[in-house]
Amino acid sequence: MTGDHYFTAEPTTPAQPREVEFSVAGRDYTLASSSGVFSAARLDPGTAVLLRKAELPAHDATGPLLDVGCGFGPITCVLASSAPAATVWAVDVNQRARDLTAANAARVGAADRVRVAAPDDVPADLAFAEIWSNPPIHIGKAELHELLLRWLPRLAPDGVAWLVVARHLGGDSLHRWLVEQGWQVERHASQKGFRVLRVTR
Predict the structure, then answer these.
(1) What pLDDT sits at residue 124?
(2) Is the dihedral of CA 158, 190, 181, 149 positive or negative?
(3) pTM of the full predicted structure?
(4) Of 19, 135, 171, 192, which alpha carbon lies 20 to 30 A from 164's?
(5) Where are the alpha helices (DSSP H) in the chain?
(6) Residue 2 pLDDT exceeds 80
(7) How far is CA 50 from CA 15, 18, 119, 123, in A?
(8) What torsion do the CA atoms of 63, 123, 78, 171 make, to the nearest 10 degrees?
(9) How far is Cα 131 from Cα 129, in angstroms, rounded to an integer?
């Protein structure tokens, strides 16, 4: 065992490259992954539900779009593929995850439109048309709330955020908390124990 988590900034776990295959909206993806990042061996079940049940951006969307906690980049790559004119920002504290996302953006032909960044490197004046996240529940409730309070206010006035949270990990309580913070929250879908939340101003 090591002290690494997928939210470790610089994983010390030796990199063990692998590939993850999945399909979304009729397109097949084969992305590079590695040990030391979130859901390294497969498309996370929550991410799969999010990408299946949320409303992917329109083909002519220009963004900018944001993937918070991008991991090796499955959400980023799907967003960039769905909206070929959009700029997608992919944010993660994990350097290995960021490197993989950049490589995977190139795999899907979107390297010129994907901006991979550490959280502090995202321009402060940037507002996002859409924010997507399978948020890192395991960092703890206080830290999760801090993360959401950091990024959700970056939503454009008419923007939409899509979040997926497992019911048994507090999906319904997070829904209530977001409402208490003044957000409009709709439980857009439920599948396989996950809640897909649509969040607007």
Answers:
(1) 95
(2) negative
(3) 0.93
(4) 19
(5) 45-53, 74-82, 95-107, 141-151, 171-180
(6) no
(7) 27, 23, 22, 26
(8) -100
(9) 7
